[in-house]
Amino acid sequence: MSLPRSHFRLDAEHILRPIRLGDGAALARAYLANREHLAPWEPTRSEAFFTEAVQEEQAQQCVTDAASGRSIRFVIESDDGEIRGRMNLNNIVRGAFWSADLGYWIDVSRLRRGLASRAVDRVAEHAREELRLHRLQAATLLHNTGSQRVLTGAGFERIGSAPKYLRIAGEWQDHLLFQLLLEEPLSPRRERP
Q1: Is 72 in contact with 66 (CB distance < 8 Å)?
Q2: For the chain, which ranges sit under pLDDT 70?
Q3: What does the buried/exposed string (b/e) look like for 17-53 if buried means 16 or more CB atoms within 10 Å of the residue's CB?
Q4: Which helix or strand (DSSP H or E) is residue 179 part of?
């Protein structure tokens, strides 16, 4: 069975697809299952954030933002229908910039399997081929070496640092900044030794 154009097979068990209405329950389960894992990497979340109702409201906002061209937010869905991560293209800007911010997270039970790497590659390809963007940018906490490896493996280059860039885990934290220029055909992923 072939997947819709906006869906991407990442491996035998996972697909990447845009968030859609009705994802609230699965998103709430995913965030609850990963609450401790994500806490050091994300803004402080209210108790309401972890409910189906709030996640469904957020899914609605994701659909609205995608329709307006402001962002495209994807989920990584396993074959059992559970959400195992997110990939987000936020702040899509046209005009003279043609750029977007990339953000993502992976379910704690799916780490170190190459899932983030494959998903970043597919989102970058989508940004280039379908959205016709010129550039993606991403930021990581200084100590998030796992995400730094994912980004550099996908061809992102470090372009600087930003002091007190985002409020993560309740504190303004410094970040490293990365970019990927999408003008040329994307290089094949570098394999780890």
Answers
A1: yes
A2: 1-5, 184-193
A3: bbbeeebbebbbebbebbeeebeebbeeeeeebbbee
A4: strand 171-181
Asked if residues 91 and 136 have their Cβ atoms less than 8 Å apart, the reply is no
Q: How far is CA 5 from the centre of its chain?
A: 18
Q: Which domains does the chain have, with CATH numbers?
A: 8-181 (3.40.630.30)
Q: Which residues contact 64 (CB under 8 A, 6 or more apart)?
A: none
pLDDT of res. 188: 54
* Token pair recorded at residue 148: 């730094």
Structure tokens at 33: 């299952």
Token readout for 54 is: 């709030």
**pTM of the shown model:** 0.90
